[in-house]
Amino acid sequence: LQDEETRKDYDYMLDHPEEYYRHYYHYYSRRLTPKVDVRIVILVTVCAISVFQFFSWWSSYNEAINYLATVPKYRIQATEIARQQGLLNKTKEKGKNRRSKEEIREEEEEIIKDIIKNKIDIKGGYQKPKIYDILLFQILLAPFYLCKYIVWYCWWFYCFTIKGQEYGVEEKLYIIRRYMKMSQSQFDSLEDHQKDTFLERQLWIRENYEVYKREQEEELKKKMAMDPRWKRYRRWMKNEGPGRLTFIDD
């Protein structure tokens, strides 16, 4: 009877002893109700998701580095930089410090990967993870991002709607990205020559973008029509199909 609510239930039981089942219900509901703070559960869940996100991104980033280390274009460049910096010469030591060929090969591989990490800016879903991108920091920084967006929107409305200023390169690319319904990381992963093509064709103008979109759709249809795998798939859908039933006598 240390709790005020339980004391009220006890007094009510003394005044109404005939309500037998009601007393049992209140007793067991208080005994079996979890006493864990919901806020703690939410915080632990968010932290667990954030940790999983961070390590998952690191794994994807390392996979991208390992893949780039096998691409001849990047491997040759990284090897040349390592030779210029004298890093590969250090691996081939003589005398007592002499190591096996396997150890030398592994060290050279790590040197090449480190150069690729430092010299190549990986964008998109395989970019180097940042701690501020995980869920926990996104929630904590949500008010800041909201205020930043409001200020940016007011600036955009004032400059380009009220004053009628011309768009700059960044503004044009932003409009194009919105038309394409791509995230910032997806758009950043595009090659520079693709973005130059977007600007040359003035795709920030809605009419030009619609023409470009139709051209891309037609080109995709042509590629799919010439693709042998797509031809086999259409042939299978026409002759068999996923929902066709056949009854064959043995």
TrEMBL record:
It is found in: Membrane. One of its GO terms (cellular component) is endoplasmic reticulum membrane. The chain crosses the membrane at residues 40-58, 135-158. One of its GO terms (biological process) is protein folding. Keywords: Chaperone, Membrane, Transmembrane, Transmembrane helix. InterPro entries: DNAJC25-like. The keyword Chaperone applies. It comes from the Eukaryota. This is DJC25 protein. It comes from Baryphthengus martii (Rufous motmot).
